[in-house]
Amino acid sequence: MRRIILVGYMGSGKTTVGRALAKAVGLQFYDLDWYIESRRRKTVAQIFAEQGEAGFREIERNMLHEVAEFENVVISCGGGTPCFFDNMEYMNQQGNVIWLKADPEVLYKHLLMGKTERPLLKDKSPEELIQFIKEQLEKREPYYSKARHTIDVSLMDTYEKINITVTKAKELLQL
To answer: pTM value?
Structure first.
């Protein structure tokens, strides 16, 4: 039985790497946000709008406990998932946790393309966005750093580099 759980900030490539890693090692892939949307029949943005961040984080915790019971899976978590409740400790108990670490400037470039889809980034100017990312990373790194493994994904901008990241993950986990 294998469980691989990917954590990291928004835009670090958790879904992209997770999908590729699951395919490479023959495991099922779950994106926690997509799982929440499927189970709740609402988008993450709708849940945030209706219940606020605290309500969303409670739902997220419950869904994490559900999906982390599945066997032979790769799970990509939302950027904030490790930072609430006992989520990070729980994930470390359930499987091999990998932090996909990226520089703020790289995250900024990735997030700038899709910021309207992310409730925490909506309505921010470019200057506000880069400052927000830096502040959030400073707060979240203590949680992310509890992961058993870390892979720097700052240069993951091509499919070839995504494959290199997948290979690194496989080597770390001896898959």
So the answer is: 0.90
